[in-house]
C-alpha cells in the first residue's frame, strides 16, 4: 500500500502595502486618517533628522565627534512606527534609530556627546521606557521580548517596539525573540528596516527567503511587508501591528527601504554599491514623497518650508554650540574611571586618586587631557 503525500502546512501569503508611491499615486481606500498636526510633526522630524545627519557627518570628518550610524533614507520607517505607540510602551532601539529618538524628544546635544564618546549622552530618565542603545547586532530583540513579557506578567496592555536591519535577521537573537514572543503571546512589534545592505553584504546574499517578513510564518506570527519609504503605508501597518500586539499577538513588519548614506562613518559604500542603484533609490526619497503629499493636501507650502529650514538650522547650531561648550567640562583625566560601576570599587578609587595626585604634582600630559 502506498501512502499519498499530503500537505502538512499551507503557508499564507505575505501582503505588500504601498499607499503613496514615489510618482505621487495615492490609494485613497487605504489612506490612513492622520491629524494634520501629527503629519506636520512627522515631516518636521524627518527633515530635522536628515539635516542632523548631514551636520554630524561634517563634525565626524572634522574630528569633532566619533563614528555614528546615519538614518538617512530610513526616516519614514522610524517615525511612521514610533508615532503609533505611547510613552507607556517600551522602545528598544538598535544603533540607527535617531529619528525615533528625535520624535521622543531627545536632546541633540546628548546625541553629539554620545557620538564623541561620552556616556553622559545616553543617560535615560528613570521613568522612561527606553532600553539602552544596542550595538551588538540583534540583542535589542531580546530586550524588547523581556520588557513586553514583564508588562504581560504585570497584567498591562503595554507593548514593546524594536528595530533592526536586514542583516540582524541572520542573528540567533532575532529568531529566539520572535519564536518566544509568538509562543508565549507577548506583545512585541518587530520593525525590520530592510535597507538592502548589511554593511557591504547585499540583501540577496543574506537569505534565500523572498521576503524577510515571511520569516514570521515559521514562528506562527503575522508578517507584513510595506514600502518603507511611504510614510502612509508605514503608519497603516504600524497601527495594525500595535493593535494586534496589545492583544498578545506579535507582528513583524518588514519596511523595504534604502540606506542612502554610509553604514557608519567608518564605511565607504562606493566600494561595493553601484551608483545606478543609489540613483534609482534616490527617486524614492521618503521626505520628498511625503512633502508632496502635504502640499497636495494644502497642509504645507513654501513659506512653511522656509521657516522649517531656518528652525532646523538654528536648533542644530544650538545643539552643536552646547555640545562643544560641555566637552571641556567632561574631558578631565579622571573620566576614564567613570561610568563603569554604580559604586566605584575601593581599589579603582585609589588608582584614580593616585593618578590625580600625580597630575597635581607634575602637571597634565601634553594636550592637557
What do you see in this structure?
The chain is an alpha/beta fold and 369 residues long. It has helices at 36-61, 75-82, 98-103, 108-115, 139-153, 172-183, 231-246, 275-282, 286-296, 302-330, 346-362; strands at residues 16-17, 90-92, 160-165, 188-194, 197-198, 201-202, 222-227, 251-256. The protein has a six-stranded parallel sheet, sandwiched between helices. A two-stranded antiparallel ribbon has the order 5-6. Helix 1 (36-61) runs antiparallel to helix 9 (286-296), helix 1 (36-61) crosses helix 10 (302-330) and helix 5 (139-153) packs parallel to helix 6 (172-183).
Short description:
This protein is α/β, with parallel strands linked by helices and 369 residues long. It folds into two domains: 305 residues, 3-Layer(aba) Sandwich (Rossmann fold), CATH 3.40.50.970; 27 residues, no CATH class. The protein contains eleven helices and eight strands.
Q: What is the share of helical residues?
A: 40-55%
Radius of gyration: 23 Å
**How many strands, what sense, and barrel or not for the largest sheet?**
6 strands, parallel
Mean pLDDT across residues: 95
Question: How do the strands line up in the largest sheet?
Answer: 1-7-8-4-3-2
How many domains? The number is: 2
Specify the structural class: alpha/beta
- Global morphology: globular
The CATH superfamily of the largest domain turns out to be: Thiamin diphosphate (ThDP)-binding fold, Pyr/PP domains
Number of helices: 11
- The residue ranges in which pLDDT falls below 50 over 5 or more consecutive positions are none
Beta-strand fraction estimate: 5-15%
Total beta strand runs: 8
Remind me, CATH topology of the largest domain? Rossmann fold
Write the element-wise H/E pattern from the N-terminal end onward: EHHEHHHEHEEEEHEHHHH
State the distance separating the first and last CA atoms: 84 Å
Amino acid at each position: 500500500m502506498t501512502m499519498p503525500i499530503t500537505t502538512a502546512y499551507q503557508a499564507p501569503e505575505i501582503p505588500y502595502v504601498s499607499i503613496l508611491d514615489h510618482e505621487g499615486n495615492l490609494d485613497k481606500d487605504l489612506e490612513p486618517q492622520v491629524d494634520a498636526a501629527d503629519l506636520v510633526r512627522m515631516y518636521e522630524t524627518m527633515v530635522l533628522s536628515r539635516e542632523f545627519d548631514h551636520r554630524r557627518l561634517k563634525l565626524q570628518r572634522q574630528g569633532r565627534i566619533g563614528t555614528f550610524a546615519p538614518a538617512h533614507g530610513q526616516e519614514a520607517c522610524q517615525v511612521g512606527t514610533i508615532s503609533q505607540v505611547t510613552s507607556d510602551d517600551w522602545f528598544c532601539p538598535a544603533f540607527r534609530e535617531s529619528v525615533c529618538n528625535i520624535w521622543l524628544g531627545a536632546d541633540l546635544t546628548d546625541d553629539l556627546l554620545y557620538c564623541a564618546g561620552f556616556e553622559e549622552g545616553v543617560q535615560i530618565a528613570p521613568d522612561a521606557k527606553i532600553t539602552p542603545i544596542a550595538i551588538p547586532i540583534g540583542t535589542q530583540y531580546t530586550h524588547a521580548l523581556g520588557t513586553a513579557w514583564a508588562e504581560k506578567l504585570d497584567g498591562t496592555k503595554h507593548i514593546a517596539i524594536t528595530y533592526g536591519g536586514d542583516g540582524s535577521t541572520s542573528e540567533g537573537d532575532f529568531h529566539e525573540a520572535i519564536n518566544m514572543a509568538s509562543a508565549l503571546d507577548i506583545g512585541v512589534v518587530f520593525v525590520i528596516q530592510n535597507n538592502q545592505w548589511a554593511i557591504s553584504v547585499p540583501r540577496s546574499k543574506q537569505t534565500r527567503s523572498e521576503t524577510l517578513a515571511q520569516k514570521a510564518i515559521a514562528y506562527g506570527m503575522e508578517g507584513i511587508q510595506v514600502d518603507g519609504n511611504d510614510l502612509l503605508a508605514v503608519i497603516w501597518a504600524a497601527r495594525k501591528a500595535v493593535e494586534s500586539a496589545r492583544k498578545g499577538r506579535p507582528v513583524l513588519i518588514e519596511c523595504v527601504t534604502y540606506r542612502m548614506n554610509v553604514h557608519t562613518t567608518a564605511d565607504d559604500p562606493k566600494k561595493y554599491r553601484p551608483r545606478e542603484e543609489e540613483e534609482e533609490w534616490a527617486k524614492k526619497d521618503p521626505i520628498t514623497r511625503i512633502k508632496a503629499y502635504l502640499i497636495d493636501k494644502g497642509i504645507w507650502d513654501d513659506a512653511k518650508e522656509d521657516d522649517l529650514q531656518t528652525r532646523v538650522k538654528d536648533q542644530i547650531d544650538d545643539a552643536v554650540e552646547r555640545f562643544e561648550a560641555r566637552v571641556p567640562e567632561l574631558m578631565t583625566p579622571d573620566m576614564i574611571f567613570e561610568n563603569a560601576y554604580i559604586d566605584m570599587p575601593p581599589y579603582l578609587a585609589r588608582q584614580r586618586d593616585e593618578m590625580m595626585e600625580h597630575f597635581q604634582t607634575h602637571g597634565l600630559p601634553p594636550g592637557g587631557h
